[in-house]
């Protein structure tokens, strides 16, 4: 696979430190599946040396959308990109997320982790019944709620400070909506999903698995990648029963119930 130079056709900030880029990338748009990511070169020099893995948020005809949060020097450089610039990208990389059929599916996104769930929702809504839970620290940091609603999906919100939706963590909201209540009863809003797809900070994913056990939870894990090709083991986490999972090569979407956090 060779890197591709892709023109940036739109670049804008969504909230503090979070940016959206649309790339003209017809080859990638044709080949990419939900769950896959691009390795983006953020400098024309050797500093930073490593590319940055960024999941594909959405696809529209020949264009591909990326969302990212500035967390270090590399993403800070990427935040300076403007429409008309070109990016050197490698991909799509990683394995596509599984695509269940005729299932009750819950999508649970926390912060910037909401991004890859949009393309997944666009694909899964054809053959499944979906609900979406979006969480953030505050109202201004909630992402993509408008886009999920435009797909015709029910969206519930959770904020840590209570400024929008449920007051608390999105994992608490998920538990409230999914778990059978005491005495075998369920609240009016509760409906236990067959499978959950989640993306967000690693503590959030670990908490979600614990709260929803034994419901299968598939998670997008790409917050700590190095080479992005399975060589450096930077992204590996222990696996129950022994061994490790390299998320860049075996994921980034894996069944989290099998991971030792």
Automatic annotation (TrEMBL):
Its BP terms in the Gene Ontology are: pyrimidine nucleotide biosynthetic process
Q: Where is the FAD-binding FR-type domain?
A: 1-99
Q: Which InterPro entries match?
A: Cyt_c3_hydrogenase_gsu, Dihydroorotate_DH_ele_sf, Dihydroorotate_DH_Fe-S-bd, FAD-bd_FR_type, FNR_nucleotide-bd, PyrK_electron_transfer, Riboflavin_synthase-like_b-brl
**Chain sites annotated for binding [2Fe-2S] cluster:** 227, 232, 235, 248
Q: How is the cofactor bound?
A: Binds 1 FAD per subunit.
The prosthetic group or cofactor this protein requires is:
FAD; [2Fe-2S] cluster
* Keywords noted in UniProt: 2Fe-2S, Electron transport, FAD, Flavoprotein, Iron, Iron-sulfur, Metal-binding, Transport
Q: Do you know which CDD domains this protein is assigned to?
A: DHOD_e_trans
* SUPFAM superfamilies in the cross-refs: Ferredoxin reductase-like, C-terminal NADP-linked domain, Riboflavin synthase domain-like
Residues at which FAD binds: 52-55, 67-69, 74-75
Q: What would you give as a GO molecular function for this chain, any one?
A: flavin adenine dinucleotide binding
The family note in this entry says:
Belongs to the PyrK family.
Under which name does UniProt file this protein? Dihydroorotate dehydrogenase electron transfer subunit
Lineage summary: Bacteria, Bacteria division WOR-3
């Amino acid at each position: 696979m060779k890197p591709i130079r892709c023109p940036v056709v739109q670049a804008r900030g969504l909230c503090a430190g979070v940016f959206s880029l649309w790339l003209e990338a017809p080859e990638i748009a044709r080949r990419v599946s939900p769950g896959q990511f691009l390795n983006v070169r953020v400098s024309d020099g050797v500093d930073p040396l490593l590319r940055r893995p960024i999941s594909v948020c959405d696809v529209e005809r020949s264009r591909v959308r990326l969302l990212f949060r500035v967390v270090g020097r590399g993403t800070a450089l990427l935040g300076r990109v403007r429409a008309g610039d070109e990016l050197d990208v490698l991909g799509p990389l990683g394995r596509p997320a599984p695509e269940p059929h005729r299932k009750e599916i819950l999508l649970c996104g926390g912060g910037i982790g909401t991004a890859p769930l949009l393309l997944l929702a666009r694909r899964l809504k054809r053959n499944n019944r979906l609900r979406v839970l979006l969480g953030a620290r505050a109202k201004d940091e909630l992402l993509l709620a408008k886009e999920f609603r435009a797909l015709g999906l029910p969206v519930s919100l959770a904020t840590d400070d209570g400024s929008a939706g449920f007051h608390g963590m999105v994992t608490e909201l998920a538990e409230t909506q999914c778990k059978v209540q005491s005495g075998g009863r369920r609240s009016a809003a509760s409906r236990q999903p067959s499978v959950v797809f989640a993306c967000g900070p690693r503590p959030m994913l670990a908490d979600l698995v614990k709260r929803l056990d034994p419901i299968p939870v598939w998670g997008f894990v790409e917050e700590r990648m190095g080479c992005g090709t399975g060589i450096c083991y930077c992204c590996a986490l222990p696996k129950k029963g022994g061994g490790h999972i390299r998320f860049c090569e075996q994921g980034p979407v894996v069944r989290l119930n099998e991971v030792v956090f």
